[in-house]
Design goal:
The protein is about 70% helix and about 0% strand. By secondary structure, the chain is an all-alpha fold. The longest helix is centred in the last third of the chain and has 51 residues. The protein is globular, with a radius of gyration of 23 Å.
Length: about 260
């Protein structure tokens, strides 16, 4: 007999669902000002404050916040900007560094006690950020390659037999103009959305079976829930960093493709 069948009617364990993402207005009458918006604004302040402290008055020998900031700068420069932008990397470091730290702080909000809500788990935020990169990509492509040249280089890569272009051209157009910006946003959103539900599930299992419905058979489930919550929190923090890195890396790749047709 399972533990759940030992509970009285109406006392069944109910796993968390989409209600986790129902954000009520913080201020009555201001429908747009919800918890995700507040956390997004807080994230912006944190990133600005961090960058100001790290790079506002740099010292020859870095210490404290500047040391951490320079480690982050070198990581983004060497792993994100230079592989895709080459000699133009330094020019775009401000954007890429800000984007990396912003998305990372957005994601970390999901594991901060009390706050515990990743901003990127609301699709609107990744969409706006990905759309900004998409508009910049098209603008730079038209500016540096010309409107005709940009779409020609995108849809008709040189060196292929002409009959292949009949199939390749629409695929390249669909991939670059529709699928790429869509996946840029959805990849970040889906990982944060799923991760938040998983953490909430194991946390609720631990709390429910250890404190709400403690039974001889339920206690082990509660312990497993606590252990899995700790383990999944560590794994989720890795995913949060990885998604920030991937988002910034794809932005660098799109910008590089627009600046240089041969990328």
């Amino acid at each position: 007999m399972s533990t759940l069948t030992l509970l009285a009617p109406g006392d069944e364990f109910t796993p968390p669902g989409l209600e986790l993402f129902d954000a009520a207005p913080i201020i009555s009458g201001v429908a747009w000002f919800t918890k995700p918006v507040l956390l997004a604004l807080l994230s912006t302040i944190i990133v600005i404050g961090f960058c100001w402290s790290a790079f506002g008055s740099p010292k020859l020998v870095p210490r404290g916040v500047q040391n951490i900031g320079e480690i982050g700068y070198m990581f983004v420069r060497d792993q994100v900007a230079r592989p895709f932008l080459g000699k133009d990397a330094d020019r775009w470091m401000g954007l890429l560094l800000s984007m990396f730290f912003m998305v990372w702080v957005w994601n970390l909000m999901g594991v901060i006690p009390v706050v515990q809500f990743p901003v990127a788990s609301h699709i609107a935020f990744p969409i706006v950020l990905a759309l900004s990169v998409y508009i910049l990509k098209i603008y730079l492509g038209v500016k540096h390659q010309g409107a005709l040249g940009y779409f020609k280089n995108m849809m008709f890569p040189p060196g292929l037999p002409k009959p292949i272009y009949v199939l390749l051209a629409p695929i390249e157009f669909l991939s670059n103009m529709i699928i790429a910006p869509f996946t840029h946003a959805v990849r970040l959103f889906a990982n944060m959305f799923a991760g938040h539900i998983i953490l909430a599930f194991f946390s609720l299992v631990g709390f429910w079976f250890l404190f709400e419905k403690l039974t001889p058979l339920g206690a082990p489930l509660g312990v497993i829930g606590v252990i899995m919550t700790i383990a999944m929190t560590g794994f989720e923090m890795f995913i949060q960093f990885l998604q920030a890195f991937l988002f910034a890396m794809l932005a660098a790749m799109y910008i590089g493709n627009s600046l240089h047709a041969d990328h």
